[in-house]
Write a structure and sequence with these properties.
Blueprint: H1 3-11, H2 16-33, H3 45-52, E1 61-62, H4 64-76, H5 79-85, E2 95-96
Antiparallel strand pairs: 1-2
Length: 97
Amino acid sequence: MKRWALFIALSGCLSKNRFEENFAEEVCLLYSECEILDLEGYSTARICRQDMTQFTDECGEYDTAKAKACIQAVRSSSCEDLHERGLPPACNKVCTN
């Protein structure tokens, strides 16, 4: 999915399922661009996306605003950011149990 399409999708309501799809797409795209899919345990971007779509399985309280912030943070992350800090901390706040 193109980043423009993700921007349009994020401008409206971001359900758990939509967040999960966007999160998986953005993270796996970042892993691919940074050439670390294999280091993260994925042989393909498709397998990465399948695995990442289980992010909200244990989600108690879901926060739409924090979900949007997470997607934006992943989208703006560089390979250097990923190497130094991992995925953005904003993504740890999307779901609370």
